[in-house]
## 1
Amino acid sequence: MTRPEKPHSVLNAPGGVFLAVYVLIFPVLFAMVLLYSRDDLHLFTNAYHSGFLDVLMRYWTWLGDGLLQVVLVFLLLMVSFRYFFTALAAFGLGGISVQLLKRIIFSDIPCPLTYFETLGREDELYLVPGVEVYHWMSFPSGHTATAFAVFFSLALLTKSKIAQAGLFVLALGVGYSRIYLSQHFLMDIVAGSFLGLLAGWLSWRWIGGYRSDWMECSVINITR
């Protein structure tokens, strides 16, 4: 008598842990965007700050910076060409889609500081000392989209649930840092994360279609 097969778990699917946590958290955040004003949401979040978080968020946000992401992507050449090309495609798709939206459709969307200045309420906003604050093209968040695109594409490639969870934390931290630093509103983060997730998945599907032994090699062992 054969044992019945265990039901397929979503967590065992490619990127399952990353995607499962995203599905749990971000619909709630999206609902908050719909139910509450951007003023109330941002000031509520902005009220919680400390010297430790000022430093942590100031540096964590770099994980979504384009230049640092390029460095991280090229370091993946040490892992495998499949990791490199998948992350590179995700970085490109996420970046292009965000810049098109920012510069063509939503170029007049103000960042938090500019928004509160127009209301005469800028004194209510806590700004982290030494951080240059942006003024326009707030929607969607490019840092968040980049982080979710690259980190989700990597989560789709690894079978380690711990690694997937860690990659989600890194991406989520970037999104939170953009709000903490008053560079973006929550709605910008939610939109950026979705664009990044889509870019990561499309890149994984695209590069995954190429089956070749050299794709599993890295610059370290390709000549062996």
## 2
Amino acid sequence: MLCEPVKSVIVEPTGTAPLAVIVFLHGLGANGHDFEPIARQLLPVLPMRWVLPHAPSMPVTINGGMPMPAWYDLTDLSRADGVDWQSVERTKIYIRSLLEEEQARNPGLPIFLGGFSQGAAISLHCGYDAPVPIKGIVALSGYLLAKSGQSGLPAQLAPETAPALFMGHGDWDDVVPPALASNSRDVIREAGLDIEWHNYPMPHSVSPRELQDLVFWLMRQLGIQLV
């Protein structure tokens, strides 16, 4: 049974209103504090409200059943369907409620949903049929979860109303195979969706160049003029 995740880490500007909200999900085995330094680093450049939730602890099959913070149980990282779908859907319910809470807290403020690795995968799974308008999705070192024979995208997804996507992946990633990410990129492009894709000479991590590209993308989504 999936336990309720504990309270999120919040990073937001002081003395000025945030330009947007980004709900950002950490990777397997980490917690909401994992991306807190990056959120604080970007705050002076782009004043946004960062909501960094903690995943609950659960046994993870690919790690020998060892309990650890996880958004869902992983059974095989070589396939887009190598997951326990019940745990995926339980987390989706939680993420949807979190997005609704943020919309109620800041009506009219643009909302982004994103994450790293497992957090990126669940963001892609939740973002295209979110219960509130999503300005954009950020998927760092992740991929599109998909049941066998399916695309992983909602059946009735309309490209003209779908959120924009920033997707980045390391060429040397030895955790999430680059082929999984590039296959997801191709599926998303073929669906006619707005995607900005970047690959980087890095392992399963985040690079300064990737963060720079992400900030520029966020600024464009918010209509901020790049100098």
## 3
Amino acid sequence: MDNKPKPAAARPQQRGAARNESKDQHRINTQIRAREVRLVGDNVEQGVYSIQEALRMADELELDLIEISPNAEPPVCKILDYQKYLYQQKKRQKEQKAKAAKVVVKEIRFGPQTDDHDYNFKLKHAMEFLKEGAKVKAYVFFKGRSILFKEQGEVLLLRFVNDLEEYGKAENMPVLEGKRMIIMITPKKK
């Protein structure tokens, strides 16, 4: 076997770099390789045209022929200003990102023998969190020998979920993970 490094031309192109370029790039004007294209859009009569005819129409309007859907048969194209098209796509992606639900999880920690005053204080905070639309992760932390009071921790969490019934509901029953007994509460839809 020959262990000499390959010349740059013989090396395969890096996948990540090629993918980034093709993600943003659309074929425009003379880069479109199909013989026929389907034109769609507001400023043209929709239908299947030869590539020469479509390029001529785009040239008359002083706009670009942009390949929107290259995998269709024949490829779907629009006649638009290419820079404006890219701007609109970025704007649309930004809006979708803003609309995406951001889930906030707030944690509330109890000890197995939490007294009523502390319990009510934490309950009030949990109500506020659920009203704001955040999930609440309530857990009882067992320190040292307090693991003997697993039943008390479970009763405490079930009471907590029951008191928050009008604001949210439990995703599951309390689960013991190591030294913590955890329960997740999701806010009710308005």
## 4
Amino acid sequence: MSAPLHIVLVEDDTLLRDSLASYLTLVGLVVTAVGDGLSLYRLLGEHKFAVAVVDLGLPDEDGTTLVSYLRRNTDSAIIVITARDTLDSRVSCYRVGADLFLGKPINGGELAAAIASLAGRRRTAVAEPPQAVAVGVAVAVTVADSSSWTFVTRQRALLSPAARRVELAVKECQLLTALVAEGGRTAKRLMLLEAIYGQKDSNTERALDTLVRRTRRKIEMATGTPAPILTEHGVGYAFVANICVVAD
């Protein structure tokens, strides 16, 4: 029998923190719950956590700073929880290394399932040696599972489930970041225009459509498979395949 997962929950709302900690404990997790960033920093010197659940709106530290620190200094999977459920917040969190973003109100069952899924992927990554992908210099990237794409944000690269690599230009990376942040839902055109170009006019409308076509073509040519970017006519675009976002 595997050891229970040890997670850390960083949430300054006492009622929410206690409620989530109680629920997660009931479903078999070992939970250490704190209310500020300083307490987390102190804990990290003494303990290792399979998963860190971090609120963005902490009294002493912006949550994205904690996410960045966790990604650079620990092996923990990272889930962000926040009432600031905006595209900018999600994109910022993914860019600094978050694995998952959940908007409040938080459902305990969904959070527990997310923790179990991320922890399972991390265990698989530890058990299996990562695949080395050579592009100029050798880099190591672990694909989450055999059906998932992997988006390596700092390298601006997308890996297909078969580990075929797609190098992304800056705008292509911004597009993919915005699509992935929607978690499979359709990203509205206006949202994409603001995220990528900072404005909406006839020129950026055409530029967005061209960008999507170019990104699809690049993915298809590099991987030999259809790009999982679908169009919802008159609404926007969606990335509809399983995808794991990593920052390394």
